[in-house]
Amino acid sequence: MGRSGVICVHQASLPSLRTFCDRFDLPAEKVEVTTAEHGNLVACTLAVQLAQALEAGRLRRGDLVALVGPASGISTATMVLRW
User: Fold this and answer.
1) What angle do CA 50, 36, 47 make, to 5 degrees?
2) Long-range Cβ pairs for the range 16-20 (8 Å, 24+)
3) How far apart are CA 77 and CA 63, in angstroms?
4) Could you give the CA distance from residue 31 to residue 42 in angstroms, rounded to a whole number?
5) Considering 16, 40, 43, 61, which has the largest number of Cβ atoms within 10 A of its Cβ?
6) How far apart are CA 43 and CA 24, in angstroms?
7) What is the 3-state secondary structure of the chain?
8) What pLDDT, in 10s, does the model give residues 3-50?
9) How far apart are CA 39 and CA 5, in angstroms?
């Protein structure tokens, strides 16, 4: 991904997030984790992850951000944007 700020992935559970990251070779240090503290946030997961990354200073203007929304392992949507 080059210079990326964060990777936001919908998280149903911590084990499923780890499996997803391993399968798609996503660097764990770039993935914004919310499920450990908040559980499955369903539709607001990506928005909460963006807010959390901004608040913590892990997301800066000009960073690339990946938004990944897997759906029950059957399909997935991914969008990369410059913040």
Assistant:
1) 20
2) 20/70
3) 20
4) 17
5) 16
6) 22
7) CCCEEEEEECCCCHHHHHHHHHHCCCCHHHECCCHHHHCCCHHHHHHHHHHHHHHHCCCCCCCEEEEEEEECCCEEEEEEEEC
8) 668 999 999 899 989 998 999 899 989 999 999 899 999 889 999 999
9) 23
d(CA 40, CA 10): 8
32 neighbors 8 (Cβ within 8 angstroms): yes
Residues 14/33, Cβ–Cβ less than 8 Å: yes
Q: What is the pLDDT of residues 38-69, one digit of tens each?
A: 999 988 999 999 999 999 999 999 999 999 98
